[in-house]
Amino acid sequence: MNQQGAGCGQEDDWWRQLYGEGGGGDTPGRAAVRDAGPSDTPDTLDDRVASALRAVAAPRRAAQRRAAPAPQPPPARPAASQPAPIPLQATGPGPRPSSPARPATPSAPQAPRDTPAPAPTGSTGDRPPQSEPELGTLPAADPAALDELVPDTALDGARYGSLTLLAASRRGDLARHRGDVRRDALLTARFGAGRHALILVAVATGRPAAEGGHRAAHDACAWIGGAVGRSYTRLAEDIRTDHRSALKSGLQRLTDRSYGRLRGRARELDVAPERYTAALRCLLLPADPDCRTRVFFGIGAGGLFRLRDGAWEDLEPPLPEQAAKEGPDGTGGRLRSASGRSPADGPDGPDGPEPFLFRTAFARPGDTLLLCSAGLAEPLQQEPAFAAWLAGQWSAEPPGMVSFLAAAQLRVAGHPKDRTAVGVWES
Fold it and tell me: Most buried residue, 119, 238, 330, 345, by CB count within 10 Å?
């Protein structure tokens, strides 16, 4: 209370000194204040506050008048390395300063182009590669089954002896636009160690518009991987000794068992077996640097190519009716159209189950072997400009993993499917 009273007393003294109220000659340090008589000047409380503000501001205005005649130094220039200030944007009402135009972010991805691009001038109908893929929406997730989510893109790679392996799988433009899950599945696995190791690469594609197609593709890769892993010692020995008949019969038996498990899973899920299935294509690569035999097997749509001396060769094993024309060994390797097998049919197409595919190839230094799903096989077979561009990218040394993915996913108008590519470079 005393402190408060003292504070009020100091304010009263200041008020009395300023306005001459209540002063007297008996107060130390204060002169007596005499009445000046009546005045016509307004003397309300507001008038007195305004007068006080003018009295306080008087010294500041005097200082400003004294500084005005003095010469002003030139404004300092910012150093060259000093960053430009960030412009502030008003957030209140009223006009706002204009800012540089920024591209609008679309709220939803644009529909993928599913029509051929116009042929460039002077060409023979070749279509040039398109821009890199755009991001799309995420597939719908089930909180009780989050382990079934499939990432938009998968990337893997390794080096063993004379071979370099690169593998990539990515969701197609159509699936990205619709928010569908990637139906292509990719498995890369090594069984064993050292020179006796065997590398398996499996690529599977679930049926289009089939419920759980991505799960069927994943199951096909997992089950063939388990079957090969349990028999890898015998398989590696048959590859080293070039025992092709034993390899073909053994791999066909393992593949049939895997598809048998797919049919069993379809019954568990109460779906038609022809709906819960997938095209499956695999490569077996011995890690032994002295063994350059590469083994391909599988069922259903996709592609197998070899890049040699800057040109693509189609190593796809011929269909049974073609084998009768080309010979019993079925080693024809010319580039041909994909019309001989409909990628949408899958292993169980309208004409019955797809035949088992088997092929061995001997790798020469400088070769590049390409195993891929139908999403990449089709533009490679049907678009000469894309095939030539890809050959130029992959003819030399093996690229880095990111460069490999960038080349494999390059968009081509009219080909919006999922893509999976497995490249094997031979040194």
Answer: 238
